[in-house]
Structures are given as structure tokens and as C-alpha cells.
């Protein structure tokens, strides 16, 4: 699910060569390093298709004190191609991450979005997230990736009116 969503999302934003590489083992190791999924500092939520009960999306959020004190980091939010628009899956996953963060006593959440991913940028803008002017370029397999940080104050969110 992660690889399919990742490839579909970034096709046209990064070179095809990068996306067409075999990343299965790399992603497998990445997920093994995150096990167990549910801890005091990490949460993984899945979304399922109502018709066939198959997973169609997931969100991973974690508190890493070394990264940002008193903030939860959304490391992944992926929705399967074909389920992106109009079904509320991304919104439900984002809400689940914020709910988990709030329940753990945090007041702020942040994530990074690839600058060229205008679909995601619009999504977070519509949801009331704030681009705090933090821009980071990191290397992904020798490819520079420009990202912008988005944050949201959980105190400003009111369930049912988001």
C-alpha cells in the first residue's frame, strides 16, 4: 500500500527512474524499524474501504523529542490511488492523527510536504494547516527533495467543525 501510494503521488514530481527502482526491501526495513506500531510515542491508523474492507490508507504519527519538543510528527499519510478524492479518507486519517496527539496531551502537530505536491499543499491549506515558512531540502537516494513544514495547533481545532 505504501509503495503504490508513494509511486502514484510522486509520479511527475520526481524522475521516473527514482520511482521505478525496486524499493520493496527499503520500505520493508523502514516498517520493521517502526514495529510495534502502537506505542506511547507512535500511532498507526488504517482506513478501510466500506465495500470490501480492504485497507485504502494509513497515517503514522510519532513523538520524537529530538526532532521537535512537545510536537507530534506525522511521518506518513498515504491514500491508495483511486481513493484520493471526495471520500474523506485523507481527512479521517488526519483527524485520527490529531485525536491521538490530543489524547496524549500534545497541542501541536507538524508534517512535511514536498513543495511540488500541489494536491497535498491544497489539502493541508483547506484543513487549516499553516505553512510556517520552514523549508528543508533533504536527499532521497541522491535526489534533492524540497519540502515545506506545515503545523497546526490542536487547540484551534474543534471536533465537528474542522
UniProtKB/TrEMBL annotation:
InterPro entries: Acyl_CoA_acyltransferase, Bact_Acetyltransf, GNAT_dom. The keyword RNA-binding does not apply. Residues 1-144 form the N-acetyltransferase domain. The keyword Transferase applies. Coiled coil: none annotated. PROSITE patterns: GNAT (PS51186). Pfam families: Acetyltransf_1. This is Acyl-CoA N-acyltransferase. It comes from Hesseltinella vesiculosa. The lineage of its organism: Eukaryota, Fungi, Fungi incertae sedis, Mucoromycota, Mucoromycotina.
Amino acid at each position: 500500500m505504501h509503495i503504490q501510494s508513494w509511486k502514484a503521488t510522486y509520479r511527475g514530481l520526481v524522475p521516473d527512474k527514482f520511482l521505478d527502482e525496486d524499493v520493496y526491501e527499503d520500505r520493508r526495513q523502514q516498517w520493521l524499524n517502526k514495529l510495534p506500531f502502537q506505542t506511547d510515542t507512535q500511532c498507526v491508523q488504517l482506513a478501510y474501504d466500506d465495500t470490501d474492507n480492504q485497507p485504502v490508507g494509513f497515517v503514522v504519527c510519532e513523538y520524537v523529542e529530538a526532532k521537535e519538543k512537545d510536537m507530534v510528527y506525522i511521518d506518513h499519510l498515504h491514500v491508495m490511488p483511486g481513493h484520493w478524492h471526495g471520500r474523506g479518507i485523507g481527512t479521517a486519517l488526519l483527524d485520527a492523527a490529531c485525536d491521538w496527539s490530543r489524547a496524549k496531551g500534545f497541542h501541536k502537530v507538524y508534517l512535511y510536504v514536498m513543495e511540488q505536491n500541489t494536491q497535498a499543499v491544497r489539502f493541508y491549506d483547506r484543513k487549516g494547516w499553516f505553512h510556517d515558512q520552514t523549508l528543508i531540502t533533504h536527499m532521497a537516494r541522491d535526489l534533492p527533495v524540497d519540502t515545506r513544514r506545515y503545523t497546526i495547533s490542536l487547540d484551534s481545532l474543534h471536533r465537528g467543525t474542522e
